[in-house]
Every structure is written in C-alpha cells, then in structure tokens.
Amino acid sequence: MTAAPSPHTEPGRCKRLKAASSRDHDSVDQLVMAARPFESRERYGRFLQVQHRFHGSLLALYQDRQLNLQLPGLLALSRFAAVEADLRDLGWPLPPRPQPVCATPAQALGWLYCSEGSNLGAAFLFKLTQRLGLAGTLGASHLAAHPDGRALHWREFVAKVDGLLLDEWQEAEAVAGAIAAFDSYRGHLRAVFADA
C-alpha cells in the first residue's frame, strides 16, 4: 500500500466504500435513533459508552506508525480522548479500554473510513445534545466540529485514502474493514442498550 504518484490514481475509493457499505450504514443510523440516546442524560451516557467501545477499539489504528505515514495527521483525528472527557463531564466512570481492532492495513482503511465518516453525521447528533444542556465544552466535545470545520477534514481524509495505490485484494479488504466496523458498532450499541 503506497501513496499514488498522482491524485488521479484510483479516484473515488471512498465513494466505492460508501456504496459497498451503505446498507450497513443505514442500519446503524436506524439503530442509533431507535435507542433514543438523546432522550435523557442517562441514555446519552449509555451512548457515550458505545462511543467509548468503538473509538477505543480504533485507537491503535490511529496510533499506528505505518498508517500515519500513509495518512499524515491521522493520529490527531482520533476522538477517543474526547469521548473520555465527555464521560467525565457527565460523571460517568471510565470503562476499561476496549480490545484493539485486529485488522490488516487495507482493512484498517475501511475501519477508519467508517470512523471518520461518522464525524460528518455527528453535526446532527451534536445539535440534539444541546437539548440536554450539553455543548462542545461540556459532555459533547467528541461530536463537536473541528475549528476548521467538518467538511475540510473529511475532504482531506478522502483525498489521502483515495490517493493510495491498492491492488484488487486490498480493495476488497478495505470494503471488508468498513463492513466490519459497522458490524462492530451495531454490536456495541445492542450490548449497551440491551436492558435500557
């Protein structure tokens, strides 16, 4: 997996990932809203536990040296520390750090695509937290937009992922990683909200 010599090599990889995982994405969206995480602070606290499990499991990917060489600036994109800060703001104890995701470098691209793409949808969720009296500085920092804006960071991420040279097997691995990420999130959501 190497950087492409031209930004026109392998255009639209993230669009292909979106198309291949759209059904999984939609089912996660539906499950999140069915869990009613913004109905109360207690339910929102459970949502933060889901986020802690998911983003915590991805921390090793964001810290991975090779992935950071392929995707410069990746480390700074992790929202795990912000999720932990939000839990502390609500007075919830920090759960144990989740087991890291086991993924090949190509699969990791799919996992990261899922994680970073969720930051775009977080704009809607962030507005819902305001009904609970939360804000980017209190309890909802992991959903708040970057000072430069969500769209800029997403475009930069997409350009980096689209600019990598992958063979056919690696392309399939990236798709598998994205689908696995959505499956993982669904599992965390069901587990945390099982008795809610």
Assembly status: single chain
What summary fits the major beta sheet? 2 strands, antiparallel
Low-confidence stretches: 4-10
Q: Secondary-structure element sequence?
A: EHHHHHHEH
Number of helices: 7
> Which class do the helix and strand fractions yield?
mainly alpha
CATH superfamily: Heme oxygenase-like
Whole-number count of domains: 1
Helix percent reads 55-70%
CATH fold title: Heme Oxygenase, Chain A
User: Count the strands?
Assistant: 2
Q: Whole-number radius of gyration? A: 16 Å
Which terms would index this structure?
196 residues, mainly alpha, Heme Oxygenase, Chain A, two-stranded antiparallel sheet, 2 strands, globular
Task: Provide a descriptive summary of the structure in words.
The structure is a single chain. By secondary structure, the chain is mostly helical. It has a single domain (10-192), classed as Heme Oxygenase, Chain A, CATH 1.20.910.10. 63% of the residues lie in helices and 2% in strands. It is built from seven helices and two strands. It has helices at 13-34, 41-63, 65-70, 80-89, 105-129, 150-162, 168-192; strands at 2-3, 164-165. It has a two-stranded antiparallel sheet. The termini are far apart. Residues 4-10 have low confidence and may be disordered.
List the helices and strands and how they pair.
Blueprint: E1 2-3, H1 13-34, H2 41-63, H3 65-70, H4 80-89, H5 105-129, H6 150-162, E2 164-165, H7 168-192
Antiparallel strand pairs: 1-2
Quick structural gist:
63% of the residues lie in helices and 2% in strands. The chain is mainly α. It has a two-stranded antiparallel sheet.
